[in-house]
Amino acid sequence: MTTTTGGGRSRPAGMGDVAALAGVSHQTVSRVLNGSPHVREATRDRVRAAMATLDYRPNLAARALVTRRSGLLGVLATGLPHLGPSAVLAGIETAARAAGFTALVGVLDDDASQVDPILTSFAAHRVDGIAVIAPYPWLVDAARAAGGTGPVLVVADAATGAGVGSVGVDQAEGARAAVTHLVGRGLTDIAHLSGPPGWIDAERRVAGWADALGAAGLPRGRLAEGDWSAECGHAVGRAWIADGVPQAIFCANDVMALGLLAALREAGVRVPEDVSVVGFDDMVGAAHLAPALTTVRQPFAVVGSRAVAALLAAVDGGPAEHHTVTAELVVRASTR
After folding, report:
1. What distance lies between CA 13 and its chain's CA centroid?
2. Are 298 and 255 in contact (CB under 8 A)?
3. Residue 285 Rama label (left phi>0; alpha psi -120 to 50; beta)
4. Cα separation of 120 and 56, whole Å?
5. Fewer CB in 10 Å around end: N or C, the chain?
6. Which range has the worst mean pLDDT, 54-68, 125-139, 272-286, 293-307?
7. Where is the HTH lacI-type domain (predicted)?
8. How is residue 273 annotated by DSSP?
9. What is the distance between the alpha carbons of residues 226 and 147, in angstroms, rounded to a whole number?
């Protein structure tokens, strides 16, 4: 909504208009905008209702002069064609918006030479902090190097050292939960279709698979390196069918499990009667595969929320925080 000036010209609604409609002071409106806890909830609701009625839009430039903040969080991301990085990015953007910040996203094409230009762009926009979605170790290293310029947080299951925060799902523990579930079903020949080498999550899941087998006193089963695609799952499934199907297969993501299930079905191999299958991620539709897929659910929204909260704590001058999020095993019909 616009208001009319003395000369009859319309202008966008300002803080004074919001204050007048809500029946509060200009300072109270400012406190609500800045997320101050020193405002009663009923007053906060009244101010927000007035903002909605007037279609009020904060003057970010003026706000930055007062708070000395840009209201921007830089997000450096790669691996976005895949579910994990894409879902984490969505979680961060949602949490940043809820906190009153805008996510300025820089996307890499898995090319380390693009890191510096993106960081330079973030600096030019005076971002208040940077979150790095890091599927690869070299990107964790880049985040450490950027840590000297301001608050930086890595979103990965990786050690970052002092000064750079981290939030990540415990990938190895998720894999251990999947394999322990299979061992508990009396299965002893458990193969693993991993993600591609060089991916932090893939390597952590391989480690968890091997750890769980060792803890159960079982030898390592067959291991095939995948590429996260359904086509790869289908090809590996056909190869393992030719060599003799293992009792169970733990796939490093649900998409490869989808291709694997198709190969088994085409060959007349029954799931779970002949072979049990477990995936990872709990992608949309996993419960509606044939059979419904047992998988390890990653709480991507929680990761995004904790990442933004930890980064904003660092922006406020707090120490670098490190959070590990637990994945959840979801048991369905693909394991006997």
Report:
1. 36
2. no
3. left
4. 32
5. N
6. 54-68
7. 13-67
8. T
9. 33
Q: Give me the pLDDT at residue 202, please.
A: 98
Domain boundaries, the chain: 2-58, 70-169+300-326, 171-297
pLDDT of residue 111: 85
As a CATH number, domain 171-297 is 3.40.50.2300
How, if at all, do strands 2-4 and 10-12 pair?
antiparallel
* Burial classification of residue 233, based on how many CB atoms lie within 10 Å of its CB (0-12 exposed, 13-18 middle, 19 or more buried): buried
Tens of pLDDT, residues 8-36: 556 778 888 899 999 999 889 877 876 66
- Is the pTM of the predicted complex or chain greater than 0.85? no
Answer yes or no: are the C-beta atoms of 221 and 246 closer than 8 Å.
yes
CATH of 70-169+300-326, one of 3.30.360.10, 3.30.1330.10, 3.40.50.2300, 3.20.20.70: 3.40.50.2300
Q: Cβ of 9: how many Cβ atoms within 10 Å? A: 9
